[in-house]
# Entry
Amino acid sequence: MVAFFVVAPFFIYPLFLMKALCFALFACAFNLLIGYVGLLSFGHAAFLGSAGYISAHTAKVWGWPPELAILAGTVVAGALGVLIGALAIRSRGIYFANITLALAQMIYFFCLQAPFTHGEDGIQSVPRGMLFGLLDLRNTMTMYFVVLAVFLAGFLLIYRTIHSPFGQVLKAIREHEPRAVSLGYTAEQYKLLAFVLSATLSGLAGGTKAIVFQLASLTDVHWTMSGEVVLMTLLGGLGTVFGPVVGAFIVVSLENYLSQLGAWVTVVQGVIFVLCVLTFRRGVVGELARLLKKPL
# Structure
């Protein structure tokens, strides 16, 4: 996978790849929560979008370098994860999904009204700046390899997490929470830690995306973005390591190459989603893993 992404920008449009990598990290962070803990959040756009606004504001208005701007967005997303997670984590099933959706909508309306977000115009012309004062991110290829490094760091952190003792406890909670509790594990604390980690990595994706596209807008904090990351995860393969990456690339490719269809893109996405649910219930990577009889 690493070799492909290193060579890819020489054959594929780098901006398309950067967008897909940002969403792939977002989908992987979301998959950590639903795929390995069993918690369906309908409010993850709040972390992606709010981190984008904070990174864009600190970089453009306060003149912070890109590394600090992205870090600020990531930290704010993590803090929001603590707040929302503490309020929602005790609920289960559809109640958990509804609470996360309601809290995310509150953040959306805050972003719509707050003066620093500039309402429907968003924060535009965000400077990319110099990374650590050395790397000029105005160069597209330099920006691409920075995005690739951010994605790989987030992906490896998720991979290490799900293969650690902490990840095994999360899987045990997903499979049978009362049994995990009877073994002495405090399920709510483990679920909250997973929620905060997922929110923080979603913020890392959002902050990086704002610097790449030099824009933070309401699109990233709207509830439809939360639905889109659900689609990416299900298409790729819920609970698989590489599934969200594949799902993100499928969805971004559909949006990019079918953009001339206008609003019909969502209809095409819906048809593909229905077909995948009916024929590939485990997702693309999930079905491939079943055929190969190997975890992917």
Summary: The longest strand covers residues 123-124. The two ends are 12 Å apart (CA to CA).
